[in-house]
Design a protein that fits this description.
Distance between the termini: 33 Å
Largest sheet: 5 strands, parallel
Strand order of the largest sheet: 2-1-3-4-5
Order of helices and strands: EHEHEHEHEHEEEEHEHHEEE
Radius of gyration: 19 Å
Number of strands: 13
Helix content: 25-40%
Shape: elongated
Structural class: alpha/beta
Length: 241
Amino acid sequence: MTDATPHILVVDDHREIRDAVARYLEKNGMRATPARDASEMDLALKTGRFDLIVLDVMMPGEDGLSAARRVSANGGPPILMLSALGEETDRIVGLEIGADDYLARPFNPRELLARIRAILRRADRPMPLAGTLGGRKQSFAGWLLDTDTRALTHQDGREVSLTSAEFKLLTVFLERPRFVLSRDQLLDMTSGRVADVFDRTIDNQVSRLRRKIEQDPGSPKIIATVRAGGYSLATDVRSVP
């Protein structure tokens, strides 16, 4: 962060909630800007710089999951999603599309603050999204990944777009071909957090990535499932000049 005071964008269609969250963050040494929906969020992002977005899932117009997907795909700031208590699907999908954390309502303001600070600490010591592969082109199983542009191209000319989460997961595999990586390891390396007991974020991300790069996602040959182990990139990788 270039500013010593973190600037948080609070996006929620409930005025009482967004104003209360903004006031609480300001009391605790942060700047906060409220927005009532995705349109106001977009306008704020065009005219200001933010270190993190607190984003409600359920909003009129474009919902929070769709908005989070757009922001993440465009390399926007970290996102903490808010959703109704017990909406497990929202949590999984939100993390899968690039959100950094998730908090269910009703929430304790102190927990919200703690999670925001944790995300900001991780953001203060960023690693290149492509890890050690930054600035390189990697060839594997008929695919070519340009880690600078995130362009993924097949030898038959097909081009595939990757979300930030999918790109990060793929580069983790490409850095460690034929290594067995557990779900906990993959989650730690891609998002810097520990899995919950029923966390299926990595399984869902692997499934989505397979649908994009495997000839037959139901019988994968590139990203193999290792029983009681996790996943492994079952192909060789080489750098291309």
